[in-house]
Structures are given as C-alpha cells and as structure tokens.
C-alpha cells in the first residue's frame, strides 16, 4: 500500500513572542489536505507540540483519517515546550502554570485566529496533551470554560491538586473529556516521584462523573510512552471530529 499520499500536507513552523511568559515560543501548525483559507476549520491545540508531531505522528494520523475515513479536516497547533520548564508550566502547582494558561488563552488563541481560518466557538476547539500535558489541558478548560470545553487526555497526570480543583466545581456537564489510561502505568517515574497512574486516573474519573462530565473513559493495556499514545490518537480524533 502506498502511504506517500499521507505526507502530502503542510506543516508550518512559526514563532510567537509572549509578553506573559517573557519568551518566544515555537508553534507547529498542520494544515490539512485540500486546505483552503476561504473555508473554516476546527482546531486541535496540542501541548508538547514537538512530541505530538514527531513521536505522536499526529499529522500523518489525521491526514490518513481525513483521506481514508472521511474525517472532518482540522488544523492542528502544536505548542512546543522547554523540557526544563515543562513541569513548572504544566503542573497546577508549578510557578509558571498560571502564566502559561494565560499565554494560551490570551496570546496563543488570538495569534492563531488572526492568521488561520479556525473556528472560534469552544466546541470547535480541542485541547490535547499527554501526562502533565493532559493535566494542563484539563485545567485550561476549568479556568477558561468560555474558550475550551473539549479535552483529550492521554495518560493524564491527575493528582490530589486536580481533584481538589474538580471538587470546587458545581457542574461540569459542559465539559467533554476523552480520557485514556494504560493498564501498565502503575509505576510511572516522574520528576515529582513515582505514581500509580491507573489509580490516580480512576480516582479522578469518579470526581468527573460526580460533576456530570461528558466523559469517554478508556482503560487498555499500554505503558506511559508515545508508543502507546500514538496508536490511540486516531480514536481520540474520531471521537471529536468524526
């Protein structure tokens, strides 16, 4: 089978200057096959942009879904991160977390929406992330519910601080969450210690259900690695774009 047509897409690299973060951040922007600036598109915002493109192969996966499955064409915006400051930006207790969320909502969205024909209704925006990227994606929706209501979490790092945040919410029926966890993620080593991600995700699932979240929860064999998440991206994209 000839896979070459899956590579006939456009990926643009751009740099955005953030006054909130006090730095320049690299973006990777995927334009789907048949892209036409006169049309409008849903948009997927990815944390760990470089990894989503290089290890997650989101551009190839989405192109295949569009060409073979008739999935609605979408634009993908991957937001690169410096590994040295990743935890402080993505973890809810991190010193740069609030600034990163403000950057995302107040600078990144206007930047992308002024340059590309992405739809600006919250139901046309998807925020995606793996591990702590899933955490910050959920917190973005909780902090900016008028902007984000659809989240893809691949093995999200959901600990007590996130559950306390969920407990403070009255109703989350507006939130749509695709939540994947691998059953082999019971002993995951992170910067903040070793955690049983299966237990943490199951506890968080209960909090989300108690608040009426529109939750699509999946457990299946898999490790805390892109080798697991890459194979699950097509199902997550189908869930929101199918």
From TrEMBL:
Top-level lineage group: Bacteria
Segments crossing the lipid bilayer: none
Record-linked PANTHER family: ENTEROCHELIN ESTERASE-RELATED, IRON(III) ENTEROBACTIN ESTERASE
Name this polypeptide is given: Esterase family protein
Organism, scientific name: Paenibacillus sedimenti
